[in-house]
Amino acid sequence: MIITQKDIIDWLQSLAEVMAKNKDYLTELDAAIGDADHGINMNRGFQKVKEKIPTLVNQDIETIFKTVSMTLISSIGGASGPLYGTFFLKASAKTANKEQLNKQELGKILQAGLEGVIQRGKANLDDKTMIDSLTPAVTVYQQETELLEALRKAVDAAEQGMKNTIPLIAKKGRASYLGERSMGHQDPGATSSYLMLKTLLTILESKP
Fold it and tell me: Is residue 184 helix, strand or coil?
């Protein structure tokens, strides 16, 4: 399977819808351990991305990802803007002049995005952050040979990583102030990261 420029546009369009649909859910998760604004912020950021889509339909993937990055950084408050912005900025660096992606190229994008988030957020695995869903997803993806099957397993791993944040004590961000009281709550950033990957899978599975 090859991911086309149109697939990327469709992913972003769908991601805006998914973040709108899950706005209250993500905010509810964040209310338990954070500022109660993750869903609001993610929805705002991706609605701004959606507004940019008409200007991106004829651009290469590098330009698309760079625009997404700048849009998220400028429109999402708190830590999520810089983190998600960094993810897409690092992704853009791996897609220079590309209008389609193969399995290995998507893997490089996911790896670069993850490394960018780790570097920006200074978080480790089991710190109760988006790293906890992205890390197992990227690891599993690299172990498979076929794109769609690799992404399916990556999404499953991201979902499990997301659920694994529930018993953890937060060590980064606003949630870390709660100490042991952060236990028993699913991390909103890990949840939105899972939704991001799941949405890409949904788009690719729906291709004729």
Answer: coil
pLDDT digits (tens, 9 = 90+) for 109-144: 999 999 999 999 898 898 899 999 999 999 999 999
Those residues with Cβ within 8 angstroms of residue 109's Cβ, 6 or more apart along the chain or in another chain: 91, 94, 95, 101
Instruction: Report the CATH superfamily, name and number, of domain 3-205.
Output: DhaL domain (1.25.40.340)
Note the pTM of the prediction, 2 decimals: 0.94
Q: Where are the domains of the chain?
A: 3-205
C-alpha to C-alpha distance for 172 and 169, rounded to whole angstroms? 9
Distances (CA, A) of 90 to 31, 82, 184: 30, 12, 32
Q: Can you tell me the distance from the alpha carbon of 115 to that of 138, in angstroms, rounded to the nearest whole number?
A: 10
Q: Is 129 left (phi over 0), alpha (psi -120 to 50) or beta?
A: beta
5 CB-near residues (< 8 Å, 6+ apart): 59, 60, 61, 64, 99, 100
